[in-house]
Amino acid sequence: MQYYTMTTDAGDSAIAKAIQSGSMVTFAKMSVGDGNGTYYEPAKTQTALRNEVWSGTPTVQLDQSKSKRVTATIAIPASAGPFVVREAGLFDANGVLLVVAKVPLMEKVSPESGASDDLNMRIYVEVSDASAVTVIVDQSQINATKKDVDDAKAEMQAEVDAISGQLDPAIDARIAAKTDVSGGIAGYDTANAHYADTAAHITANERTSWNAKPDKSTMAAATIPASGWTGDAAPYSQAVSVDGVTDTSVNEILPDSDITAEQLESLQGANIQDGGQAAGSITLLAYGDKPTIDLPVRIIVRGDM
After folding, report:
1. What is the pLDDT of residues 15-58, one digit of tens each?
2. Which residues are 178's β-sheet partners?
3. Binning pLDDT at 50, 70 and 90, where does residue 142 land?
4. How many CB atoms lie within 10 A of CB 289?
5. Which pTM does this prediction carry?
6. How many whole angstroms separate alpha carbon 184 and alpha carbon 167?
7. Taking the C-alpha atoms of 138, 23, 62 and 107 in order, what is their torsion angle to the nearest 10 degrees?
8. Please, how many CA atoms are within 13 Å of residue 176, restricted to the half-sphere of its CB?
9. Which among 27, 131, 117 is positioned nearest to 73, based on CA atoms?
C-alpha cells in the first residue's frame, strides 16, 4: 500500500494566488480521520476528509533540505481517543481543505486503557514555492527529527568548548595563586593537610543532599530484528530484552546515533508504541508497516522517575 500527500485543487489555487499577490497561505488546522473505516485514494477535488475524528493547530516549518517542501506536525494529546488514523488534512482559517494525505494506520487508544500517550504525526507537503506558506511554531509541541537532535548537540558542544576554553586558564591561575600562599587564607592550612587523602571530606548537609538524589538513568543499545515481529496484521508485536527494565520502570526508545536513512524511515513508518513490560524486557507494538530490516535503537531506563 502506498502512502502519500497531495495538494487539492483549492490548495493549488490558494498557493498560486499567494505567489502572484505576494501574500501567504496559512495551514491553520490539521485534522485526522479514520477514512470511515477503510482506506481510499485521496483526490485533487476533495473538499473534506471522509470521517474526521480529531483536529488541532499544527506546527508548520520549512524543510531546510528541500526548498519546495514544508512539514506540518501535530501532537494528538493522550486525552484524545479512542480512534484510528488513516487520513489527514490541512485546512486554512476558513475551513478550506488545502492538503490531503493517506497515512499509515495509527491507533490512538482510549485514555481509560492505561496505555494512552501523545501521538505525534508529521506530513510532508510539496508546494511550488515554500516561501508562500506561513511558518507556525507552537512552543507547546516538542517534535524533533534525528537531524534536529544532532544539530542541537553539535551547537551545545561548541558552546561548552568555548566556555571551557575561557574558564581553564582562569582556574589554573587561581590554583597557582593559592598554592603560593603560606598562610593568611582562612581554611587553607586545613585543606592543604588533606591534600593527599584518598577520601572526600564533605559536610553533613552535603551528605544528606547527595543521598537524596535519584538514581541515574541508564542507556543501552539494542537492535529490533526484522525477524522478531509476530502477527499477520497491525499491530505487530515483538519483545526486546533490555537490562534494567522492571515492570514499573519508565523507558524511552530513541533512534541509534548510527541509524541509516532507510532504517529511520522504516522506524517512523512502523509507528511503534508501548505494548507493556516485564523484568528485563519490553514489548513493542508496530501499528504501521511491519519493518523488513533490523532497526538499531537506544533504550533509556529512567532513574529519576
Report:
1. 888 887 888 888 889 999 999 999 999 999 999 999 999 999 99
2. none
3. very low
4. 18
5. 0.45
6. 26
7. 60
8. 6
9. 27
